[in-house]
């Protein structure tokens, strides 16, 4: 029975970690896009 509990915890942690990773990637790419747009439009 402890195995089931452990798998539940692992699943929860991995879901949480993947959400965090997605957020980090999203922030990173949006920053890159903003930077690219600023460079393209000539830094208003």
UniProtKB/TrEMBL annotation:
This is Uncharacterized protein. It comes from Holospora undulata HU1. The lineage of its organism: Bacteria, Pseudomonadati, Pseudomonadota, Alphaproteobacteria, Holosporales.
């Amino acid at each position: 029975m402890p195995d089931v509990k452990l798998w539940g915890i692992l699943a929860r942690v991995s879901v949480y970690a993947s959400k965090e990773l997605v957020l980090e990637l999203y922030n990173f790419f949006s920053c890159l896009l903003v930077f690219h747009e600023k460079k393209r439009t000539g830094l208003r």
